[in-house]
């Protein structure tokens, strides 16, 4: 059984830059300093087109157990016809976190 990851995340559209982009930034508490994290857009998106689904993976290292915060970021350029209202990050064994998207600018 995998351990639950502690994640904090925010999602923002920056409407002042061109092209406008969605930024997802966060922190995950990993168990080892040499753990490697990656985030990418999920291959299969859900039925709700207003929610962007991202997949967060943690590759466990071999170092000593010591809680370490690691940051992650994801950027997606906004298309003319698409604005996400929420971002869901899937991680671990069927765990997820969903946040609302803020609009800046």
Task: Walk me through what this model shows.
This protein is mostly beta strands. The chain has one domain. Helix content is 0%, strand content 57%. The chain contains no helices and 7 strands. The protein has strands at 6-14, 21-30, 36-41, 51-59, 68-77, 86-91, 95-104. The protein has a 7-stranded mixed β-sheet, with no helix packed on it. The radius of gyration is 15 Å and the shape is elongated. The protein starts with 5 loop residues before the first strand and ends with a strand. The model has no long low-confidence stretch (mean pLDDT 87).
Q: How are the elements arranged and paired?
A:
Elements: E1 6-14, E2 21-30, E3 36-41, E4 51-59, E5 68-77, E6 86-91, E7 95-104
% residues in beta strands: over 45%
User: Shape from CA axes?
Assistant: elongated
Largest sheet: 7 strands, mixed
Detail the poorly predicted runs: none
Helix fraction, binned, reads under 10%
Q: Give the averaged pLDDT, no decimals.
A: 87
Helix vs. strand class: mainly beta
Order of helices and strands: EEEEEEE
Number of helices: 0
Radius of gyration over alpha carbons? 15 Å
What order do the strands of the largest sheet run in, or round the barrel if closed? 3-4-6-7-1-2-5
How many DSSP-defined strands? 7
How far apart lie the N and C ends? 43 Å
Number of structurally distinct domains: 1
